């Protein structure tokens, strides 16, 4: 049976780029893998066919020979391809490539041909508590962060005298070794260098070959006005130092705004419960309330106010959290919620006056009258 055109097998045109060929092969490999097609006896043959096609077309020299001579370029032990003896159906090599593409990141690959000589440092988290007043004004705060920094003695290389580490002889600097296990080529972390791709023959005495040392650092952090609980601030490069000269990680500062004894916060809105006397609520008057900036504001209480009545002070809430230069936004409002307070520990004269008031009270309790009218209707309905 004549072989199909390699381009046809992968579903690409002859002018397809290397990236398009790789993408098409990855799709075919996932689609035709025998483990996914146990009920399809033809899947394994087509899977091998796709591997053979990709192994040829991924190589520039093989691809050029195939474009010129077709399948004849590889007949006779590779004579049509400069006598290299390479066969395009090398399944292990082709599948190893797609295996690395699909799963390389999970195994620690970060580009550069699979080399992992220098490792990026880990990100750090720092929980910072601020008061509501500090969240309102913003502040600059010094924090002490435990962690690691690049070793000065070896300049982060891990080798004595700042010399460069040597290439690992086991994996030739790849950080991984491959082993053929039947149908598959399995890739594992190199046991000699631990995936670094390099070994340190003379470790630095200060950092013992790690390229970094543990040390606390004091950092100055700008906390912008308007932060809320859960706000995250990123300080690039202030995390753990990388291994053997790798880049440092980042430091993430998570803000927690403490509860306030007077104000409740909801985004940019501040709320404040203010107690007023029965007389002030009934007759009307003024109350003095605090504002988050440390000021005072006088609020008029309308006559006949009930508990729960709210009044609004425009612009007296929290500022917006600005994101980037030129960002703007209006500050929030402050809500005043009245709480009518019932007096306690009355004197004899006060009790006498309240009894007189109760006797004179007529149609000036609309909520009470409405409630008891509903209660009377409810009870009447139950006795019918």
UniProtKB/TrEMBL annotation:
UniProt-annotated stretches for the region Disordered? 302-330
Cite the residue ranges of zinc fingers (CR-type).
138-216
Q: Which residues form the J domain?
A: 5-70
What is the species listed in this Swiss-Prot or TrEMBL entry?
Paracoccus haematequi
Per the entry's comment, what about the domains?
The J domain is necessary and sufficient to stimulate DnaK ATPase activity. Zinc center 1 plays an important role in the autonomous, DnaK-independent chaperone activity of DnaJ. Zinc center 2 is essential for interaction with DnaK and for DnaJ activity.
Chain sites annotated for binding Zn(2+) 1: 151, 154, 204, 207
Q: Per UniProt, where does Zn(2+) 2 bind?
A: 168, 171, 190, 193
Which GO terms label this protein's molecular function in UniProt?
A: ATP binding; heat shock protein binding; unfolded protein binding; zinc ion binding
Function text: Participates actively in the response to hyperosmotic and heat shock by preventing the aggregation of stress-denatured proteins and by disaggregating proteins, also in an autonomous, DnaK-independent fashion. Unfolded proteins bind initially to DnaJ; upon interaction with the DnaJ-bound protein, DnaK hydrolyzes its bound ATP, resulting in the formation of a stable complex. GrpE releases ADP from DnaK; ATP binding to DnaK triggers the release of the substrate protein, thus completing the reaction cycle.
GO BP, sorted A to Z: DNA replication; protein refolding; response to heat
Q: Does the keyword NAD apply?
A: no
Q: What is this protein called?
A: Chaperone protein DnaJ
Q: Which family does it belong to?
A: Belongs to the DnaJ family.
Its subunit composition reads: Homodimer.
- Give the superkingdom in one word: Bacteria
Its needed co-factors are: Zn(2+)
Q: Which GO terms describe its cellular component?
A: cytoplasm
Residue span, CR-type domain = 138-216
Which InterPro entries does this chain map to?
DnaJ, DnaJ_C, DnaJ_domain, DnaJ_domain_CS, HSP40/DnaJ_pept-bd, HSP_DnaJ_Cys-rich_dom, HSP_DnaJ_Cys-rich_dom_sf, J_dom_sf
